[in-house]
What does this fold into?
Amino acid sequence: MKYAIFALFAVVAVPAMFVLAQSNRRYLGWLLALATFLTMVTNSTRIHFISMEDYRGPDRGFEVTLTDLIFLAVFPLVASKRGVKWFPYNSLPLLGYGLCCFIATLKAPVPIYAWFTFYKLLKLYFVYWVAANSFRAGLTMEHMAHAYLGIGTWMTFLALKQKYLFGMYRIKGPFDHSNTIPMYVILVLPVLYLWASCNPRLPRWKSLWGIAASLGLMFAVLATQSRAGLVLCGLSLLMVVGLSNLRFPSRRVRLLTLAIMTLAFLGGLKALGTIINRFETAPEESEMARTEFNIAADLMAKDNFFGVGLNSFSYVLTTEERYNGHIKVMANEEQAGVAHHIYRLTAAEMGYPGLVFFVLVWAGFWIRPLWVGRQGRGLPATLLLGFPIGFQALYLIGFLEWAFRLTPVIYLYTIQAGVASALADEVASGAPRLRKSLRSARSLAGKPNKTASP
It folds into this structure.
């Protein structure tokens, strides 16, 4: 039944969305905002073809999501716009990363597992390409801000329901595991807060709604009891609060800052016992299991120049004694899981060349919005600075988690990277003095592109 409903949606809704977007540029923007919001509910709305749910790797089938269908519907309109960038920012490192992924796919001991992930990565580049060119077709930051507002509101609702109605000790929101929430939330929270606090044209009720949704996202992280997530999301919130005061000093911003600091202090005081207990009673077995898996990942990367195969860590760790002989904590499990370290996991599956390009891609998406946003002025440049704040927190959590590879997180990150690239073009094109420095920023992470005209 689920496949039939999804097929009907694809056959009927995709052409309908194309016609709708073609009729008015605003509708295209709202469709892309909807696609962004739907990354949050991917787990309950996607379908898998050739599903292998028993496998413990990140990807277990050829996955299709509602976000994919919406991006497919608007692609012809975006591609037909004048001045489209066929090779958007960061394409050169992305090409290198893609080649490493392809080699790692060919090396995989079970090819179908690797093709699951390679197919997903091709879709993600398509999503990035559309997002990076979307401002030319009608998308604006107002559309995206409303998507973030929807995410913050729904996540807050789920967090309150699961915490106080269901009594869950560690909420999981719309995801399969609690630890996914911080990695997802941190991509939204900085930009949402800056939009709500620094936009002088925003009605007061909507500004307060945005601030409440931002605090709700922070509450959701707190309710997961994730130690790293709590620290990094808290620091990110402090950074954007400080940034709002530097960029838009006003009585309104100062009052918001005072209110947030007061609420954060009172909320932290109330939850202090739970937080301390979480830090003190964290099971040693969890840390030992992480260490054992990381040792295995290091061995795989050392033994295999191009890795053991894309999406193959779990299979290789399960089947090869060379890599599982030291495992003690999880020795009784029938099938091994995944290393809780995105960088080691990448090196294990794709080798050190893959890791190098992976880091270059991430660095490129962090450098450009930071570079352009720092030198720009006004609300767009300030919003642009929210993206690298979220990215850097995600990168740091990656030393403790692999959840970046999960569909909701990696899709939202990809959309954010594309939107940040498009917004950086807009900010730079409106400020000629930025163009020289923009070329320098591009040279750090990819082949230079000419700055688009407004």
